[in-house]
Write the C-alpha cells for this entry.
Amino acid sequence: MKKRSDGVVESWSIGSIREKASLPNSNTPIPRRQLIFTGFALCAMLFALCFPVEAQQPKKVPRVGYLVSRSAPGANDQGFQEGLRELGYVEGQNIVVERRWAGGNPDRVPDLAADLVRLKVDAIFAGGAIVHAAKRETGTIPIVFIAEGDPVGSGLVASLARPGGNLTGLAILADELAGKRLELLKEAIPRISRVAVLRHSTSDVSHLRATEAAALSLGLQLQILEVINPDDFDRAFGAAKKGRAEALIELASSFLATHRKPLVDLAAKSRLPAMWEHSGFVNDGGLMSYGPSLPDLYRRAATYIDKILKGAKPADLPVEQPKKFEFIVNLKAAKQIGLTIPPNVLVRADKVIR
C-alpha cells in the first residue's frame, strides 16, 4: 500500500506487482519464472515475521538443588532419582540436579544452602532438619522438604492443607510414631522396664514429649541421652550402661541417621537391644526399626518438584503424610546379643533379616 503525491492511497497486490513489473523505459515484461520466485520470497518473509520469537529460542533446562545431611548417596537418594525418571526427567538432558552433601556436619549446611541460592536454582529439595537452613536463605525459591517432626509447629508452613510461603513437602510425623516404636520394643522384650532415649540436641522437643507420654502409658522409665557430636557417642552408651538401661530407642534425627553405623556398632557392643527410626539402621546391623519408608518419601518428593517446575506454587500444594510404613527385625543382630524375638512379633514384621 502506498500513498501518492495527489493523496490517493494505492493498494498493491500480486496482480498489481505483476502489472508494474517491467524494466525501466522498456516494454519488455519480467519473465514469469522470476515473478513466481519473487512471490515465494515475499511469502517466506511474511511467514518468518509472524513466527513466534519464543519458539526460536532454545528451551531452558530446569536446575534443581538437592540438599541433604549425608556424605554419600544411598537408598533414599535412589528413590528421588527413580521418582524423577518415572516423571520423564533424565539428568543431563532435560534436568540438572545440583547436589550438596553436608557430610553429617550441621555447620556446613548454611553455606551449602546459600550456594544453591546463588546458583538461582528453580527449586530446592531439603531432607530432614536442614530444611530450616534452606528456609533462612531464601523466601522466594520453592523448597520441597521431608520434615522429621511437625512442619506447622516448627514454623515451616502455615498449615498442612495450605502451606503458604515457598515451602511444601512431606511430613514424617515422628511424634505419632514414638508410641508405636516403644510398644513394639516392649512386645519384643516384655521384661524391660528402663529404656535409654538417644536424641540429638537439635531434635524436636515435641518428639521427646510424645515419647515420654507413651512410656508413661506403657509403664516404662526413660533415661535421656543427649548428644551434640560423634565424640559424645561413647559417653552416651557408657551412661546407659551405668543407668542400667535394658533397651534403647533413638529419636528421629538427620544427624543420628548420618552416623548410624557407629551407633549400631556401639549398641551391639553394649549388648543393648535398640529400636531405630528407619530401615537403614537395620541394614547396617541394627536390631529393629519402625517408621515410614524413606526411599518412598524421597520418590514422592520428586512429584512436588515436577509440579513446581510446571508452574504450581508451593503455597497451594498440601503437605502429605507417609503412606508406606515398615517394621523390620534383624535376627542376626538378635543372636549377636543373645536375644530371642517372640514369634508374635516376628509375624508382624514386614521384613525379617535372618
Q: What stands out?
A: The first helix runs from residue 14 to 20.
